[in-house]
């Protein structure tokens, strides 16, 4: 990836995020911050206004992910920070400070996909991860309204996860570990609710109880998440 925050790659065509930037413009206005921090930061601002979430809740997510990264030798950064250090770091776009944002990253991911017969034949049962369900969802034109939370894909997450749980014949209560897309701490919070890890609007209480880390109901992003592990875009999806 190129140095610095994501920017325009081609200037001779419309950018895919045009409709997202319409939401940014129509809600909080365009600032000089990197485009992605505006999109996801504004989702956090909307969540605070709608549900009473505090900036500390997003900072607690970042603190947790930085702490988890210390156990991952492949993480881009393996530094632990206090909640105070995270909240006092340079503000990128309210409520996101630098330590709540994913870094620019290079990296790769690979998966070897085989049949169950192959696993048994080669005695790989202790190494294999069984895929019980896989789903994909997208947004349709016009669904965002002026909601930054919708623009960040919460509705897509709800549809895809509902279908996946039904296909796997499981519920969210059968889950123990979750790796989710924390490009920014605000996105991790709204994804908690999209996946059904907690009720809508209750992510702040979920975080305060410690239900997103060891000793709680789920362990979310034990890898350190994109905030620490790194976010080399396409490789991120396969790694998840």
From TrEMBL:
Enzyme class, first EC level, given as a word: transferase
Domain named Thiolase C-terminal: residues: 157-238
Molecular function (Gene Ontology), one example: acyltransferase activity, transferring groups other than amino-acyl groups
EC identifiers of the protein: 2.3.1.176
GO biological process annotation, one example: lipid transport
InterPro entries to which the protein is assigned, alphabetical: Thiolase-like, Thiolase_C_2, Thiolase_CS
Pfam short name (any one): Thiolase_C_1
CDD domains according to UniProt: SCP-x_thiolase
Key words of the record: Lipid transport, Lipid-binding, Transport
PANTHER family recorded: ACETYL-COA C-ACETYLTRANSFERASE (PTHR42870), NON-SPECIFIC LIPID-TRANSFER PROTEIN-LIKE 2 (PTHR42870:SF1)
Name assigned to this protein: propanoyl-CoA C-acyltransferase
